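Progress note, sequence design subtask.
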């Protein structure tokens, strides 16, 4: 009789496991990131993103990675916490900032553009700047 609750618990845990990542999608994401940072060198991570013109500057790499294009070819890459898994499906990543910068820990929401429904939320990680050598 004791085995049934343990069996049910095990079945519940297995059913919650995420499916394995799609290798083709992972390869596309890695290629997209490499294209953005090709020939650039990573700098020390920053807690906040400097003020950038935001119109069309964010590039979604995958469900947990976004990049921001800055001036002079600089690119900032940030890892998102779990929760924004649908950002790569054509939904919008919406941020609500109180100041003029975007910082680690700021909340982003994934919003379906057709319905306006929020389908996920996450936080930004540190922003790693990539610049050309000698810049």
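Output:
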């Amino acid at each position: 009789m004791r085995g049934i609750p343990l069996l049910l618990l095990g079945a519940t845990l297995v059913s919650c496991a995420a499916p394995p990542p799609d290798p083709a999608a992972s390869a596309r994401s890695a290629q997209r990131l490499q294209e953005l940072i090709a020939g650039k060198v990573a700098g020390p991570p920053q807690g906040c993103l400097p003020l950038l013109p935001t119109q069309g500057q964010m590039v979604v790499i995958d469900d947990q990675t976004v990049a921001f294009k800055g001036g002079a070819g600089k690119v900032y890459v940030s890892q998102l916490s779990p929760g924004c898994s649908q950002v790569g499906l054509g939904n919008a990543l919406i941020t609500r900032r109180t100041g003029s910068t975007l910082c680690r820990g700021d909340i982003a929401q994934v919003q379906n553009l057709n319905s306006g429904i929020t389908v996920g939320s996450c936080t930004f990680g540190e922003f790693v700047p990539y610049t050309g050598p000698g810049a």
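The chain has a mean pLDDT of 79. Work on this subtask will continue into the next period as scheduled.
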